[in-house]
């Protein structure tokens, strides 16, 4: 049997997390522009070189979902530890109370940094061993897929509308 499956089966509760970057694409659709040279119409696709974006962290488990955290900067070890302290710990407390849980995260540099590993040890939180380059194994990807489909229909035009769409999902 796969060691990952054996390891997970021994965990009573597991909390699965991930951060994603979402972009605003105000020019998602192609627009028709008339060229003044005769009556010829040309289909033009506009693009935005640097679209507005937000970085959002979330966590889920069989007991429910934790609060979303919108980050203001790229995630390094210090930023990630703040997320863990102010969002993950309260989510785990809300979902599991005093019960033990195992935490799942991908192998992003901020997650595997030595200070982050020390943070988990200091807080007595065991980590699920996670294979590298395996996003297809992460159940939270299904949740992010739902969020992405909602964003496609909502068509947010700026970062605040994007956040509101994500929160509403």
TrEMBL record:
Annotated ranges, domain Tc1-like transposase DDE: 51-163
GO molecular function, one term: nucleic acid binding
Protein name as annotated: Tc1-like transposase DDE domain-containing protein
């Amino acid at each position: 049997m796969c060691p990952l499956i054996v390891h997970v089966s021994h965990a009573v509760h597991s909390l699965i997390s991930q951060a994603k970057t979402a972009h605003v694409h105000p020019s998602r659709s192609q627009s028709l522009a008339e060229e003044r040279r005769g009556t010829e119409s040309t289909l033009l696709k506009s693009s935005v070189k640097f679209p507005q974006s937000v970085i959002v962290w979330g966590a889920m488990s069989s007991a429910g979902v934790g609060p979303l955290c919108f980050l203001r900067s790229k995630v390094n070890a210090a930023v990630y530890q703040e997320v863990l302290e102010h969002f993950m710990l309260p989510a785990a407390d809300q979902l599991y109370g005093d019960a033990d849980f195992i935490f799942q995260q991908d192998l992003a540099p901020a997650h595997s940094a030595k200070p982050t590993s020390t943070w988990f040890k200091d807080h007595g939180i065991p980590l699920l061993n996670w294979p590298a380059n395996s996003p297809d194994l992460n159940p939270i990807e299904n949740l992010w897929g739902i969020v992405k489909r909602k964003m496609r229909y909502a068509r947010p035009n700026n970062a605040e509308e994007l956040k509101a769409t994500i929160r509403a999902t």
